[in-house]
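Issue 218. Parser rejects a valid record. Input:
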Amino acid sequence: MAEPLSFHLMAKPSGPICNLDCTYCFYLEKEEFVGRTNRFRMPDDVLERYVKEYIEAQDVPEVHFAWQGGEPTLMGVDFFRKVVELQGKYGDGKKIGNGFQTNGTLLDDEWGEFLAANDFLVGLSIDGPEKLHDEFRVDKGGRPTFHKVMEGLEVLKKHSVEFNTLTVVNASNVRQPRELYRFLKGIGSTYHQYIPLVERLPDDRAKELGLTFAFPPEDGKPGESPVTPWSVPARQWGNFLAAIFDEWILNDVGTIFVNHFENTLSAVAGYQPGMCVYRETCGNALVVEHNGHVYSCDHFVYPEYDLGNIMGKGLREMVMSPRQQKFGNDKAATLPAFCWNCEFVSACHGECPKHRFTLTPDGEPGLNYLCPGLKRYFSHVWPRMRMLAEIVLSGQDPSTIMETLRPKGRKRRN
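Output the parser choked on:
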């Protein structure tokens, strides 16, 4: 019997439009591809079709909507009131959840009341303490945004809105892992998402179109363009994760959750990691733009990955199409032998195909740029992750590992 169909679709109702002008943002230039509809605003008919079809296409009792951008708060609260109304109309008895990724600068009491009343989980984008955050995350006038983000965070706290944090790890904040981790912990974030910044300078094709960044690698071919100066250095990415792990494993197991640690633990325990970048294949995490066009992945919003428009094609049809299935399966099919022979392949699976633009030591294409850092991280945490997996699988409290590993006389850091 085939498994029930379930997939993730990230909706961008405002397309790539944002009130900030972050130096490293790869999505602002997507105006060149996704087309203009009502000034980059999802029309009512597209919204209704999307909500209806997304719920109907899921063969599971719980359906989760993810709203991103650009900046989704630019749509206004009334747009999302309509979202909730449509979800109620087409819910068909399924449990509906909503995730909402925002830079936080436009949040006010009206937003806080709405998000709390409708149980939205908010992802707040913040890159660390003021100096680290403001290095790249600036507004259209080049002004810093840290204090605006913190005001938005206070709105979320005031209204008891559940939130987590998303941090883009770049060439600057990667050098201060413990300061960054403790800052996020200090502002009340109990779930940390760390996203490595890897962007390349424009290749010839991108230059012809006036784009800022290179196109994704094709079929594992090595990239000719170097990474941007603000991209995270590969080895330092591993040092960053290892340093945070050392802090977490002694002090915060069971109270702070980190996306990479959860996925590594799953792999060590013998399960498939949950994050698409760590799974053997991908293709079940698509994106729908403001105009209804569906693309294979958030990082592949280019014409060749346009699967069609929901006003003319069914979502299920697009997700199950041979093109999308090939896109997902190619992740494993193009993985170099060097990776298949790696002891950490079950936890990594070559990471994201977007980052696979370097050569293996024997000259085979398709190696992930972050490979040196990923090996550093996995080799550092593996023994203690095995201990933690044994504790979890035996039904014990995972937090007991902290007392086991903490040196005698050393107190837990709060």
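Fixed in the parser; the record now loads. The chain has a mean pLDDT of 94.
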